[in-house]
Amino acid sequence: MLLDIDNLSLTITANGLVNPILDTVSLSVDAGEVVGLVGESGSGKSTTARAVLRLYPHTAAVEGSITVGGTEVLSASRDELHRVRSSEAAMIHQDPRAALNPVRRIGDSLTERLVHVLGVSRSDAAAAGLELLAAVGIRQPEERMRQYPHELSGGMLQRVVIAAALTGQPKLLLADEATSALDVTTQAEVLAILRDLQVQRGLGVLLITHDLHLAAAYCDRVYVMYRGRIVEELRGNDLFHGAQHEYTRRLLSAVPAIGHLPNSESRAS
Amino acid sequence: MSEYVLEVDGLQKAFRVGAGEVVACNNVSFTIPPGGSMGLVGESGSGKSTIARMLVGLETPDAGTIHVRGRQLGLQERGRAARLRRAKEIQMVFQDPYGSLDRRLTVAQCLDQAMRLHGVSGSARVAALLDQVGLLAKHGDSKPHQLSGGQRQRVAIARCLAIEPSVMVLDEAVSALDVSVQAQILALLNEIRASSGIALLFVSHDLAVVSEVTDDVLVMYRGSILEQGPTGRVLNAPESSYTKLLISSMPGPGWDPADVLERRAAFEAKVGV
Fold first, then answer.
1. Closest to A40 (Cβ–Cβ): which among B178, B186, B256?
2. pTM of structure
């Protein structure tokens, strides 16, 4: 198993108040698998993903275990943790404009990990960067490398962020609402590229989303989170019709839908 | 007195980009009756936000007219009084309420300030406004960071209602919210337009959301309206191939991103982009 989270509990104590954020969360992602994590804001989806990289406040009390590619993250040494963060797992956030430094060129942001973390020479890093930009479907990569984030559209920037995440050749991608800010056709474009990369490289993907239709259509398996717990695990195809848990059903019933679309009815069958 | 709250006629706007020009809004005309709700959909770059921004006076149209309750709005307001008059007619709710609320003011101060600015008296109304948008009296003492995203969006809506505008423009106002919170805000908007007669212009790239809260819809692509009509008709039996593309691009059972790209390429080849 590429990612194995076992009975993860995370509690933050502030001002004498004990705040349980995650409660015995267990989930797994295998190589070549796309796994969805859905739920409302505050349910603990992002906290779970961040915990995989051991990113949580120092004040948090954490129990359980997280294994990424055989390395136990919670008890990992500095060097092991560094290796997990630089070349085992990578995270993609919702807003690519916040993820890229606005005063640095795309090429610099893209090759940063290679040059400064993995010690690759600048010319080799630039060559690798060009290759990755081409791999995420960006045309004229040489020109893009010299441009600044404000010169590119949101969809193109998110592809740059995905390319940057792939520079360390990770085996696991943590995509936190990575396409939520994009419109439907751009979202499809980014997800098609992600799927190609995922198949080619045998990546495991943990896809956090609040879009239940997307989770159902794109993910092999889906976990539903509610108040820090995993309440249900379903196959993606079964999300809309196989949900057993009361909360999942309530969440599904809140999803807006185009009423009585002949198209959607045929798709739903 | 016109029978429409909002009448937009022949609106035109182009932006200069490098040596060329991008037409963000090409001869756009539409009307909204009292209590009516118009959806404006399209992908990013289609010009929908430009229209919203021209309505509230954040962009100056190159040509065209905007009438609110029969009175023509200037294309560009100069001076404080004119801008306030404009704001009194048309209010806007943005996607990110955190960015549009002053983080140093409590909710009550924020509402009070908006009313005072427009010479609407009444800190007494604060409680009624909070109640109208489904917030509790105690929320009046909260600052934005103490509220959830949905609550903040309710405050932004309350601030609009505070000055009793004729038109409310909502630019992706529920896009950042969870489905369950989104459903509550949509219900609130439907309630508001039914009870107050305020006309809504609802800008969104989410067709499902638009179908829940609008009577009519405009579908925009590269600055032009490709299709318009009653929301139910347009979304159930779309005539424009672009509307069909948008609908089939929405994730759902059997959706495959690679198919979407193929359909999109076919559409672009057809319109000759």
1. B178
2. 0.82
